[in-house]
Amino acid sequence: MSECERSIHTALASVDDPEIHRPITELGMVGGVRVGKRGRVSVRLLLTTSGCPLRERLRADVEAAVRGLPGIRHVDVEFATMTARQRAELGERVRAQFGGVRGVLNDRPAVYAVASGKGGVGKSTVTANLAVALARTGKRVGVLDADVWGHSIPLLFGVDRAPVALGGAMLPVEAHGVRLMSTGFFVSDDEPLIWRGPMLHKALQQFLDDVHWGELDVLLVDLPPGTGDIAISLLELVPDAQVVVVTTPQPAAQQVARSAGRMAADLGIAIAGVVENMSQFACACGRHTPLFGAGGGTALADGLGVSLLGRVPLDVELRESGDIGVPVVAGRPDAPSASALRDIAGSLPESRKSLIGVSLPLQAL
Ligand SMILES: Nc1ncnc2c1ncn2[C@@H]1O[C@H](COP(=O)(O)OP(=O)(O)OP(=O)(O)O)[C@@H](O)[C@H]1O
After folding, report:
1. At which positions is ATP bound (predicted)?
2. Exposed, middle or buried, 317 (CB in 10 Å: 0-12/13-18/19+)?
């Protein structure tokens, strides 16, 4: 290998695959490097699927890494698709690298399960925005959309592609700096989900076990509304999760949300706090109107003996951002709801580190 080729390989080692978060050189994704005349270089990248949506990001990252080298004027990036064998090898590498899929959670992320007593109170919107806000502070964040009947996380993040499967493990889809996994990636909207009890439990377990989350600091779980099977399953599978209860200011909503709190208490799970969503509406005329009443969040927090983490105002920008798949914290960071959500993300209590992925020493009694 010439000196020039060696320095190109070193530069390529600084480029990470955006979803596996490992250098493309380590993952066998560099199919070849050709050094031509007059500072022209061509790099061939091997992708897991031909329709890889991240190819433009990879192209830009490779160009940026190689173009800075002395004597290099132009970088061509070509793409090819891995053979089945190459994909299998990549899957093996991913597994070996992290000591098995479950082992990737060994660094014990903080797990926050976002719950609500009833649907439509903005639980998924809050989850998505807390995730983006945390990612923007430099944390490595994942969102598990366990809201199997109303999976809105893919829509809220503007994602309509399925996750890539490698060597028996699925890679989360990355959007707005957050790693996502959702049942919504696997079912079409007109296909009703009739999973109950044990099936839901198994699906959830798979999402925790068979998804290559990589190293995470925080995992947010969007629970289905209510206190049904899946919430209980999750809290059993991840006993160190803390629950964030989302409610509206209405006394009625607060009553239902109280049952979520009671469930957490029954299961011995800590409640991180309460988020009051759809608090008063700030009109452009300057008037603040409590459309859904007032005081629900505080009353619930007091009832549960936890803090009110914050109030998110009713905000057209928040709703519009959700509709176009760009969470408001990312797309309109100056909106009143965005700043409230950032403050709430900053006020989440420090984690009790989750034990998922850690093998516990078993002792005979
Ligand atoms: N603070 C807010 N201001 C304006 N619109 C909001 C606000 N919070 C949520 N919404 C809108 O309310 C609707 C319901 O929100 P979302 O889907 O997050 O609720 P949910 O509690 O997760 O519902 P479900 O559990 O049924 O999925 C969405 O259209 C969302 O954009």
Report:
1. 117-124
2. middle
